[in-house]
């Protein structure tokens, strides 16, 4: 079990892409067991922040530091960060024709097991495990045999990200707009799964536009991002104010 209180500590982080500053002097601390939500207008830098934490190579870090469980990961490779315990659920999951969803999920799962020097699962045992998981988010098992994300509906893509999160059991899960494009039922399924997944020993960073997800998940902290920086931090009430008055009147 992770006994480190501060799981993520970002300080003075500035990031640019093609010489344009996108993250500007940002600080953020997430402790073990907390759920943080980041809200903010389109283009405020939320997805960039998510990708930078998980190590996307496109972005150059101009200054600042990212510590994960007290280890400096600012320039660490994405696969090392994943093995260290960071998961990113993408805003726009990529379609990969020709790669079966279940093969992909099993490779990711077994890569983690191998890294931990634990036994990997054969296809049948993995099929049993994954079937239990998909029942909880209301997806049919035939969806496992299709190509990864290819032709998946918006909701199915998001559910597949949640399925990966649940199988991989990382300590910090970043979910970028996991709620966008979902119907009411799918939003409930996903929210319930996130709530069940959350434990005192893991942490979640949700990026969202919507009050509804915040009402379901009840994050411990809510932040408003604006022009690459966290301008205001508070609790769930902040999300209610944004819903009422809009970003323009708050930041
Ligand atoms: P958000 O998720 O808050 O909507 P993003 O992080 O996606 O915002 O984008 C923040 C800003 O950075 C936007 O102006 C966007 O156009 C720019 N940006 C992000 N990624 C890239 C990229 N790969 N190339 C060029 N500009 C980018
Ligand atoms: Mg985004």
From TrEMBL:
PROSITE patterns: ABC_TRANSPORTER_1, ABC_TRANSPORTER_2. Pfam families: ABC_tran (PF00005). GO terms for molecular function: ATP binding; ATP hydrolysis activity. Coiled coil: none annotated. Keywords: ATP-binding, Chloroplast, Nucleotide-binding, Plastid. Residues 8-251 form the ABC transporter domain. It comes from the Eukaryota. This is Probable ATP-dependent transporter ycf16.
């Amino acid at each position: 079990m992770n006994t480190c209180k501060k799981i993520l500590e970002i300080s003075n982080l500035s990031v640019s892409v093609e010489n344009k500053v996108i993250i500007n002097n940002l600080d953020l601390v997430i402790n073990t067991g907390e759920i943080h939500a980041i809200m903010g207008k389109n283009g405020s830098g939320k997805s960039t922040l998510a990708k930078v934490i998980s190590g996307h190579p496109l972005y150059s870090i101009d200054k600042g530091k990212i510590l994960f469980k007290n280890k400096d990961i600012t320039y660490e490779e994405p696969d090392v960060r994943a093995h260290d315990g960071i998961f990113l659920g993408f805003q726009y999951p990529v379609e990969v024709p020709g790669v079966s969803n279940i093969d992909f999920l099993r490779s990711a799962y077994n890569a983690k097991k191998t890294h931990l020097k634990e036994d990997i699962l054969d296809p049948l045992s993995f099929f049993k495990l994954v079937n239990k998981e998909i029942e909880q988010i209301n997806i049919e098992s035939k969806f496992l045999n299709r190509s990864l994300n290819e032709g998946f509906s918006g909701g199915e893509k998001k559910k597949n990200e949640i399925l990966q999160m649940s199988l991989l059991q990382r300590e910090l899960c970043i979910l970028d707009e996991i709620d966008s494009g979902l119907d009411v039922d799918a939003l409930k399924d996903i929210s319930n799964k996130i709530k069940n997944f959350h434990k005192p020993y893991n942490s979640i960073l949700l990026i969202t536009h919507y009050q509804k997800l915040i009402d379901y998940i009840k994050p411990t902290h809510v932040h408003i991002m604006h022009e690459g920086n966290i301008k205001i931090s508070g609790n769930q009430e902040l999300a209610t104010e944004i819903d009422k008055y809009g970003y323009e009147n708050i930041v």
